[in-house]
Amino acid sequence: MDLFTHVILGYLIAFGAVGFQPGYLAAGAIAGGLPDGDVVFFLIARRFPMFRHHGITHSIFGVTVVAIAGGFLAPRILPGSPLLYFLVMELAGLGHIAGDAFTHFSVAPLLPFSNRPLEIDADRAINFLTLVVSVGALFLLGSERFRVSFDVYLASVYGLAAFYASYFALRLTGRFRIGQIRRTMPEFTTPIPTGNPIRWLLVYERRESGRLRSGVAEYQLGRGLVGPVRRVDVPLEPSGAGPVRNAEEALARSYPAARRANSVLDDTYHTGTAVAREGGGWLVRWYSLEFAAFGRAAGVRVEIEPSGELRAQRGWLPTRGLAAPP
After folding, report:
1. pLDDT tens digits, the chain, 326 residues: what are they?
2. d(C-alpha 54, C-alpha 39), whole Å
3. Angle 86-87-88 (CA atoms, 0-180°, nearest 5)?
């Protein structure tokens, strides 16, 4: 979950706990975003893995330490109760943990006592819908300060709370429904949330006997599975030479070159499409199912000449018009 959404949620959590009390609201907003300050530990994280991103600062222990420090320091800066400062900062910090666990980027909330991950897998780590709303909310609340009536401010806060509550409920409903679908399709092991809260991908991916075997199905909340299942079965290493005769051969011939061109294909679930070009040859797109937004995805474009010669170029590829796009 992005930093701006964490800050706004921390603000809303503090508002829900203590109402309109600016000092506590500021503390909640700061505590909501503070766990992502672990980026300052990147130099020591390799040696001390507990300080990696989504490490100790994203644990109950970590946010409690911060809340205790905030309860001690905040009353020396702004008037208020140490206990209430601790309370709002603890709740906002726990909200940060829950927000990240809500995505497919897991956290370990019981560090340093346990590395057991928590991952609800109901949203992307960065979703541009909530990002845009959260950035807009920061500008809205900032512009309203001392400029509008209190009733207008309250309407803004309640409106934001209703948006996030509805969004999370929609995402959880989709995650529950695609979990039910997955149980009827045991070959498909992993649900992947897309940027659209009503659309999901259900995938499997195996590397065996020197080949990649994968499949992608699209699910839409309220409609069920839509479109065809896209399956890919290609060699991991180069094979074959000469002219390419069909789409399956184009995929097989281009995949090793695409892997070399962009490591995102080895790091994420992915798939490919092949289209015959006018005048001969093929255009193949291999793209990530996870690094995708606004109708484009990180991947590789491979042009296959009529002679069979390949040219691979990494990029941010369009996915519109493809079956089961990200």
Report:
1. 899 999 999 999 999 999 999 999 999 999 999 999 888 887 787 788 888 888 899 999 999 999 999 999 999 999 999 999 999 999 999 999 999 999 988 899 999 999 898 988 899 888 889 999 999 999 998 888 778 899 999 999 999 999 999 999 999 999 999 999 989 998 998 899 988 899 999 999 999 999 999 999 999 998 989 888 889 999 999 887 888 999 999 999 999 999 999 999 988 899 999 999 888 899 999 999 888 877 888 999 999 999 989 999 999 998 764 443 33
2. 9
3. 100
Phi-psi region of 69 (alpha: psi -120 to 50; beta: other; left: phi over 0): alpha
Q: How far apart are CA 314 and CA 1, in angstroms?
A: 26
User: Phi, psi at residue 176, to the nearest 5°?
Assistant: -65, -45
Q: What is the pTM of this model?
A: 0.84
Q: In terms of residues, how long is the chain?
A: 326
CA 280 to chain centroid, in Å, comes to 39
b/e for 229-250, b at 16 or more Cβ within 10 A? ebebebbeeeeeeeebeeeebb
Query: Which is it for strands 211-220 and 199-208: parallel, antiparallel or unpaired?
Result: antiparallel
Taking 3-state DSSP, the helix, strand and coil percentages for the chain, each rounded to the nearest 5, stand at 45, 25, 30
Q: In whole angstroms, what is the distance from residue 161 CA to residue 293 CA? A: 25
Residue type present at position 44: I
User: Letter for the amino acid at 196?
Assistant: N
**Domain definitions of the chain by residue range:** 3-176, 190-318
- 44 and 119 in contact (C-beta within 8 Å)? no
Instruction: Output the DSSP codes for 267-322.
Output: HS-EEEEEEEPTTS-EEEEEEEEEEEETTEEEEEEEEE-TT--EEEEEEEEE-TTS
268: nearest Cα among 218, 208, 312, 212: 212
